[in-house]
Specification:
This protein has about 325 residues and is an all-alpha fold. The protein folds into four domains: about 70 residues, Annexin (Annexin V, domain 1, Orthogonal Bundle), CATH 1.10.220; about 70 residues, Annexin (Annexin V, domain 1, Orthogonal Bundle), CATH 1.10.220; about 80 residues, Orthogonal Bundle (Annexin V, domain 1), CATH 1.10.220; about 60 residues, Annexin V, domain 1 (Orthogonal Bundle). Helix content is about 70%, strand content about 0%. The model has no long low-confidence stretch (mean pLDDT about 95).
C-alpha cells in the first residue's frame, strides 16, 4: 500500500546553488530588497537544496544567509523564509521548544507534531532536540503537561508504534471490544486502554479496529472519543484517529482553523505549509476544498497580504494573482 502523498513543492530542475547564492546576495545588497527574487529562489527549492544554497552563500560571502534574510525582511514573511531555511528537523524542534517556552504550553502544536509523525521521525527529532536545547524532549513534555495527556505524549514520544503494516482482523475485533469496554460500556473511562491501542497498533490495523468499532456500535470511534474525553487528551486521540482515517483532512482542518474566525494564527499556517509542502500538500489542498467548499488559495488570499501571501502561493503551488 502506497502511503506517499503528492507534494506541491518539488526539487528544482537544473539546480545551481552557486548561482542561487549569488542571486540572493544581489537581491539583498545595496538599497532595498528584491523580495520577488527571494520568493523565486527560497520558495521554489526543496529543503535539501535550500541547505546547499546556504552552504554556498557562506562559502562565497562569509555571511550567514538566515542572518541576512532577518535583517532584510520582517513580520510573517521573515518568519516563513527563516523557517524554510532551517533543516526540517531543526524546524520541528524549534516549534516544539516554542510551544513549551514561557508561560503556558501550546498543546495543539505538541499534538500536531507528535500525533502525526512516524517512529523514525520522532527519534530523529528527539536526538536533535537534545543537541539543540541540551534537554530531553520527553522530560520537557512531562514537565509541561499532566494527567492523561501527559501519558499520551509520553507514549507517542517513545516512538514504539508497530509499523509492520500487518493486519489481523480477529485481533482488530478484540481491540474494538476492549475500547468499547474501556469507554462506552462502563461508568468512567479507562484511558490507558485507549492510549495503548491508539499509540501501539499500526495504522492499517487501526483502520480495521475503527471499522470494527463502527460496525458494532453504529457510530464512529471519533464520536465515542468526543463523548468519553475532553480537553487535550480528546484532541490528541482524535488527531491520531484522523491521521489514520484521512491524514490530508486532518491537516486541511489545521489550515482551516489557522484562518477561520477573526485574525489569523500565522504560526500555525506557516508550520503546516512548511512541514507538508514537500510531502502531501496537494492532497491537503484537495481535502480543504472538499471540506470547506473553497480553495486553499482563496483563503490564503483573504487572510494574508503582500510578499508573505505570494510566498505562500509559491509553496502551495499556485500562480500569483494580483
Amino acid at each position: 500500500m502506497c502511503l506517499c502523498g503528492t507534494p506541491t513543492l518539488l526539487p528544482a530542475q537544473g539546480f545551481d546553488p552557486v548561482k542561487d547564492a549569488h542571486d540572493l546576495r544581489k537581491a539583498m545588497k545595496g538599497f532595498g530588497t528584491d523580495e520577488d527574487k527571494l520568493i523565486e529562489i527560497i520558495c521554489r527549492r526543496n529543503n535539501e537544496q535550500r541547505q546547499e544554497i546556504q552552504r554556498q552563500y557562506k562559502t562565497h560571502f562569509g555571511k550567514d544567509l538566515i542572518e541576512d534574510i532577518k535583517s532584510e525582511t520582517s513580520g510573517n514573511f521573515q518568519k516563513l523564509l527563516v523557517g524554510l531555511l532551517r533543516p526540517i528537523v531543526d524546524y520541528y524542534c524549534a516549534e516544539l521548544n516554542d510551544a513549551m517556552a514561557g508561560l503556558g504550553t501550546d498543546e495543539e502544536v505538541l499534538i500536531e507534531i507528535l500525533c502525526t509523525l512516524s517512529n523514525v521521525e520522532i527519534h530523529t527529532i528527539k536526538n536533535q532536540y537534545l543537541r539543540l536545547y541540551g534537554a530531553h524532549l520527553e522530560s520537557e513534555l512531562k514537565s509541561e503537561t499532566s494527567g492523561n495527556f501527559k501519558r499520551l505524549l509520553t507514549s507517542l514520544c517513545a516512538a514504539a508504534r508497530d509499523e509492520s503494516g500487518r493486519v489481523d482482523p480477529n485481533k482488530a475485533k478484540e481491540d474494538a471490544r476492549e475500547l468499547l469496554k474501556a469507554g462506552e460500556l462502563r461508568v468512567g473511562t479507562d484511558e490507558s486502554m485507549f492510549n495503548m491501542i491508539l499509540c501501539q497498533r499500526n495504522y492499517q490495523q487501526l483502520k480495521f479496529i475503527f471499522q470494527e468499532y463502527e460496525s458494532v456500535t453504529g457510530h464512529s470511534l471519533e464520536k465515542a472519543l468526543k463523548k468519553e474525553f475532553s480537553g487535550d487528551i480528546m484532541e490528541g486521540l482524535i488527531a491520531i484517529y484522523k491521521c489514520v482515517t484521512n491524514k490530508a483532512e486532518y491537516f486541511a482542518s489545521r489550515l482551516h482553523k489557522s484562518m477561520a474566525g477573526i485574525g489569523t494564527n500565522d504560526k500555525q499556517l506557516i508550520r503546516v505549509i512548511i512541514t507538508r509542502c514537500e510531502i502531501d500538500l496537494a492532497d491537503i489542498k484537495g481535502a480543504f476544498e472538499r471540506l470547506y467548499g473553497k480553495s486553499l488559495k482563496s483563503w490564503i488570499k483573504g487572510d494574508t497580504s503582500g510578499h508573505y501571501k505570494h510566498a505562500l502561493y509559491a509553496l502551495v503551488g499556485e500562480q500569483r494573482s494580483s
